[in-house]
Structures are given as structure tokens and as C-alpha cells.
Amino acid sequence: MDKAAKIEAYFEEEHEFKKAIGTLREIILKTPLEETFKWMFPTYTLQNKNVLAICKFKNHFGIWFFNGVFLTDPLNVLENAQEGKTKAMRHWKFSNEYDIDPNQVMAYVNEAIINQKNNRVLTPTKKSTKHIETPELLMEAFKKNAKLKKAYQNFSEYKRKEFNEYISTAKQEKTKLKRLEKILPMIEDGIGLNDKYR
């Protein structure tokens, strides 16, 4: 099913809030935002950047503002989408269609568009990654095989860390040896520990 069909199916599905989310859609389609479909929801973008999405659930429906943290929120209606996890996204929840004031919704949407145009976005910060020493067993294998060591050094730091953790996290020596036996041919062949999942 293509994106257009998914969008139509989302709005056509029989649901308590079917009419209400249709109203939100009508308001948003009056703006320059482009309608697409991401993460199972109609999503509205500006120059391929996510601005907002329309969502519906069992007990409420609403708008997710991807960078809602920057909205002035004069009505004090925005909630953190997931307290403790979400930094930028804010959610405007509605419980029935009569709560929707088109002018108020349009004001929030327009502010979100202006913020996006002005690049007022929260960029995610990378988590600091703890360096994990190369395990002794692996070091011993490198001493015996220079080709193996060179192959290991050709991996990105992230992939080397995966190999290191794989051995280091084993509690028993026999498990460490078993894991070492598994990864040595992978290293020689230039295959990362989790490549098959990527």
C-alpha cells in the first residue's frame, strides 16, 4: 500500500474520533505543509522535515508537534509526549471534536511552521559511549595472528566495541572462549558481530 493509500485508510477507518481527526486534517491542509505517512500516522513536513502528526488513540486524539518544546503555548495545552524520554515533542490532546477551535489550532500550526523555517529544532545529543578495553583473550589472539589484528583494526570503533563487549560480558571463562572462537573467523572475514541485523 503506498503512502497516499495509507493516509486515506487512516482517515477513513471507523473510529470514535473519525470526524474529529478529519477536521484537524482540513485545518492542516490549508497550510504549506506536505502530507505524508510515517510511524503509522499522517505526518506533515516542511522541506522533508517533520513538523507535526495527527494521532488517534482509544481515549483521545490530537496533534504531535515534533519541536513543540519551542511553541509559546498561550493556551497551556501542550504536554510532553513521554515524560522523561521525549525532549522536543509536545502533544495537544483532545477528547472530542467540540474541543477543536480551528483558529487556535491554526495559530499553533503556523507557529510550528515558522519555527521550522527558522530552524528552531532540538538536535539530539549523542550519548557518551564508554570505552571498553580490548579483552586479554582477544589481545592474545592478535599476538599469534598479525593478519587478524589488522582485520580487527579495519573495523569502525563501534564494531570493535561490539566484539569487546561480547567477550567481556561473559561471566565464565569457558563462555568467553566459546565466544572468542565464534568471532575470530568473523573478524578475519570482515564481518561485524551484528551485521546480519543491520
UniProtKB/TrEMBL annotation:
InterPro entries listed in its UniProt record: YdhG-like
Domain of life: Bacteria
Ranges of residues in domain YdhG-like: 20-113
The species this protein was found in: Croceivirga thetidis
Protein name per its UniProtKB record: YdhG-like domain-containing protein
